């Protein structure tokens, strides 16, 4: 059998990784400024993470959601405390798309309505309702296009109000900082206005923190930069440091009932322990402080690069905008300078998503190599 060929691949075969260093099958080392798409949060093969997962495997790796799993309760409690979201309940699932799918479904159950407001250039995943709220015609099949979704621009409160007041909207879904799109984000005023309008009209506000959550933006959740309280928050990527795990944080005013949501694999023992290990490392190693310091350092260093037209993002969810398309630069960085970086649907943006414990020295290497690659 061959693989279903959907991914254009770089010709690199990683076989081991430690911290932000990835080693390929030829012994070549790469610095990982991409984190496998914002997934590696506490660094590859963190010793505490490895120990927690190995110890758990020695006990029990999986049982379904038909029996008690105290690890889920432990995780919900710790997550509530570290994120300052104690007044939410946690539903565990497996991927970012699945988290958004469940969030949208809950909003529809809650309101009895079905139209969704999403934003231009958004990315919320590749499954049913999640892909329908993704502003990319090419990855929406006719089946997905049956969903009722309206895409609005950021920062146009009049357009937003007109759509909400039509009375048929169940949810507004917004990436707190756009990831795949290229790090755009609206103003705090816009966030606060849409939050208010949603509350007034009983529309469920969903903050997609799949990429921007878990400390990446310098606050636990990126919406916390804007002093709003969404009704539902979705999380995934950095949560498991590579273990497939995702979650939906549901404000306690939205009530659960048996069978409303469900999954076979979601919240299994290994997934819980992977996430607990990430939270423990974040807390014990003060990673959010590092995110803020290194994020600010990155912005300063970027000023030295004359070809950079603009810096974007917050914390360690970063982008450098050039006045040329960066595909060739990314190839050069990976093959000649051994640096992994990310792209965006805005083809002029080089995305930088390193582990949250990256050091200044590693950041310096990145900028030294970038300067050479651009010269
Ligand atoms: C903001 C956001 N939401 C949802 C998703 C989908 O997550 P997954 O690929 O785990 O389904 C992504 C993935 O890139 C994302 O960036």
From TrEMBL:
Give the UniProt keywords, A-Z.
Aminotransferase, Pyridoxal phosphate, Transferase
Q: Does the record bear Secreted in its keywords?
A: no
What InterPro entries does the entry give?
Answer: Aminotrans_3, Aminotrans_3_PPA_site, Class-III_PLP-dep_AT, PyrdxlP-dep_Trfase, PyrdxlP-dep_Trfase_major, PyrdxlP-dep_Trfase_small
Per its Swiss-Prot or TrEMBL entry, what cofactor is needed?
Answer: pyridoxal 5'-phosphate
GO terms assigned for molecular function: transaminase activity
Write down the Gene3D superfamilies for this protein, in alphabetical order: Aspartate Aminotransferase, domain 1, Type I PLP-dependent aspartate aminotransferase-like (Major domain)
Q: Which family does it belong to?
A: Belongs to the class-III pyridoxal-phosphate-dependent aminotransferase family.
The protein here is known as Aspartate aminotransferase family protein
Provenance organism = Maribacter arenosus
